[in-house]
Design a protein that fits this description.
binds NADP nicotinamide-adenine-dinucleotide phosphate, Dihydrodipicolinate Reductase, domain 2, Rossmann fold, 422 residues, 3 domains, alpha/beta, eleven-stranded mixed sheet, 17 strands, six-stranded parallel sheet, 35% helix, Alpha-Beta Plaits
Length: 422
């Protein structure tokens, strides 16, 4: 390596992750830069960041596109978002510059075009931090598990939602947990991306494309956020041995269709994923040769993300000149969500009168949905009771009809359900 020329880096963006990458690379008098033959040539920062002063030997461009005019080998894209990032990365390939990015949104929307552009120019695009920040799932799927057939990937892929749900489990309100996550720099600038399940959906889309070679962006799939979960759901879930998490899943079904989904679930409290707390992300990969692989680590935060970005730089440094092979195919079909079956947790607030439970359970019977557990709780609100019901396996479309019909009854005031992952 000592004889090779330096790998010249341009960083685009000067926010949380970019400054953390810079700090980690420059720590201990640039130990990592020296060890892996890297040099930071320029930074695209449309304004200064009060946390870090850029030394005078590094050029600063106020227009991030000017970074591509410098003589660099790799652009590190840390601006986030879709449109400008896509323009920047496309232009980088035109100018024969390799790419490292932590941006799942641009990969989800334009991954295929970007992978093809890199391939056509014999360049590399690395994106370890785009899923689970520094927890190394991308290279694991691309290389270490490459000999395996993967049948399922399940993951808690959004650190912010897990942080919020962990806090709510301890009794904190949704709003205060979200604001705490924002202050700690975990949340995306637009929190809807996190709490609406979209960020996790982008990530499971990227993992599905790696595991099953399906091209990005994936067609529409089921996405639901955590906004309607209530603090008391955790108490009811706990009584039945469950906790609540946001889970993203990609799996091959028997008919070779691929099911992709991103939504809250009840998970057994002591399961591998159920026991992860805070910003930790967790992933289970079901393989044919080594069985189930479990991976967990910090899935948000600037240091963790910087770790993934730097692992990409190190990979480039060690494998310089080697083309990344990445194959996608159109020969797959997305499975319908409406025909999937789950067990469901129902929380129903209704008038506290004799006969209410019978009227409600008769609706379940009418839709041929079996009841496994039924508990009646006194509600704090006047004259209402809360019924907690855990169903047997039932089809999603039947459950949606049942929910609609329960809501139409004059005796109910709040009907919610969460799927149970078994
Ligand atoms: N933070 C995490 O925990 C985490 C984890 C995994 C992946 N990521 C990904 O890492 C990337 C960066 O995240 P971050 O947390 O560092 O975000 P951030 O703190 O908001 O920083 C974004 C930086 O990009 C600049 N920028 C944004 N749009 C720009 C544009 N159109 N032109 C020029 N500059 C622009 C911003 O400039 P201004 O300050 O002037 O707006 C800021 O310097 C994102 O793709 C994110 O999804 C973050």
């Amino acid at each position: 390596m000592a004889n090779q020329s330096k790998i010249r880096l341009g960083i685009c963006g000067w926010g949380n992750v970019a400054t953390a990458v810079y700090s980690a690379l420059s720590a201990n008098r640039g130990e990592l830069l020296k060890k892996y033959n890297l040099e930071i040539v320029c930074i695209g920062a449309r304004r200064d960041n009060p946390n870090i002063k850029i030394p005078s030997n590094i050029k600063v461009h106020r227009n991030i596109f000017d970074v591509l005019e410098d003589d660099i080998d790799i652009v590190i894209e840390l601006i986030g978002g879709v449109d400008v990032a896509f323009q920047l990365l496309s232009k980088a390939f035109e100018r024969r510059i390799n790419v490292v990015t932590a941006n799942k949104a641009v990969l989800f929307e334009h991954g295929n075009k970007l992978f093809k552009a890199a391939l056509d120019k014999n360049l590399s695009i690395y994106f370890e931090s785009s899923v689970c920040a520094g927890t190394p799932i991308i290279k694991l799927l691309k290389t270490d598990l490459a000999a395996n057939r993967i049948s399922k990937i399940s993951g808690m892929l959004n650190g912010t939602t897990n942080y919020i749900l962990t806090k709510m489990e301890k009794g904190q309100s949704y709003a205060s947990a979200l604001s705490e996550a924002q202050q700690l720099g975990y949340a995306e600038a637009d929190p809807k991306l996190d709490v609406g399940g979209i960020d996790a959906a982008h990530k499971i889309g990227i993992l599905a494309s790696l595991a099953f070679q399906c091209p990005l962006p994936l067609k529409k799939f089921f996405i639901e956020g955590i906004e309607s979960i209530k603090k008391e759901d955790f108490d009811f879930a706990r009584e039945q041995g469950y906790t609540i998490k946001h889970l993203a899943v990609a799996e091959k079904q028997k008919n070779k269709e691929i099911l992709v989904r991103s939504h809250p679930v009840l998970l057994p409290f002591n399961s591998n994923l159920g026991s992860l707390k805070g910003v930790r992300n967790g992933i289970e990969v079901r393989t044919n040769l080594i069985g189930e692989v479990h991976l967990a680590g910090s899935g948000a935060g600037k240091e963790s993300t910087a770790s993934g970005v730097i692992s990409d730089l190190i990979h480039f440094s060690k494998h310089r000149g080697m083309q990344e092979d990445f194959y996608t195919s159109n020969k797959f079909k997305m499975a319908k969500f409406s025909t999937q079956s789950f067990k469901y947790y129902f929380s129903i607030e209704a008038e506290d009168k004799p006969g209410t439970a019978a009227k409600l359970t008769s609706q379940f019977a009418k839709h041929q949905v079996g009841i496994d557990v039924l508990i009646q709780k006194e509600s704090k609100k006047n004259c209402t009771a809360r019924l907690i019901i855990i169903t047997d396996l039932a089809e999603e479309k039947i459950i949606n009809k049942l929910k609609n019909n329960l809501e139409k009854l004059s005796l109910t005031s709040d009907v919610r359900f969460i799927r149970i992952e078994i």
